[in-house]
Amino acid sequence: MLLIESLYTGDAPATEQLVLDFDARTKSRLRTRIASGEEVGLFLPRGTILRGGDKLAAKDGRIVEVVAAPEALVEARCANPVELTRAAYHLGNRHVAVQVLDGALRIQQDHVLEHMLEGLGTQLSHIDAAFEPEAGAYAHGHHHAERGATEAKIHVMGGSHA
Predict the structure, then answer these.
(1) Confidence class of residue 90 from pLDDT cuts 50, 70 and 90?
(2) What are phi and psi of 93, to 5 degrees?
(3) What CATH number does the domain located at 70-130 have?
(4) Is the per-residue pLDDT at 154 higher than 50?
């Protein structure tokens, strides 16, 4: 089994890929398989949340790139920014993971939340896409400066990265 215990921050290209949905990317302990089919064990610092594009350092020296798997999402769009803000407020009140885009919100499919959003007047579409939700306002730690200041970033609470 390929053992991974830390993030890789160097410039070397990845030689392997690890495709994970968002829920799997929030687990610091995970037994799964890389794209080639080889079994892998993740033993990352508690609180680590992986993003698509992150690189991991395997114990044998290989570099593994994290790929955000497409998953079933709902995209909500509104007629104006006030309605979109209202939808984001109600989702936040429910502590739902939300990906904020220019003019849209994305959440994992949930019929109860979809019904609520429809009641708020949002136009919903079901899509398959990588899910990269916002982090909490009080989160801190890991970020990706190379991805640009305007792109959403996830921050790790109480964790440090090698």
Answers:
(1) very high
(2) -60, -25
(3) 3.30.70.790
(4) no
On whether the CB atoms of residues 2 and 50 are closer than 8 A, the answer is no
CA 9, 15, 18, 22 torsion-angle sign: positive
In this prediction the pTM is: 0.79
37 near 76, Cβ under 8 Å? no
**Which stretches of 13-147 are DSSP H helices?**
22-25, 81-93, 111-119
**Contact (Cβ atoms closer than 8 angstroms) between residue 134 and residue 29:** no
Q: Which of 29-33, 57-61, 104-108, 145-149 has the least mean pLDDT? A: 145-149
DSSP letter (8 states) at residue 20:
E
- State which amino acid sits at residue 3: L
**CATH superfamily name and code, 2-68:** Urease metallochaperone UreE, N-terminal domain (2.60.260.20)
Which of 158, 110, 160 is closest to 131 using CA atoms?
A: 110
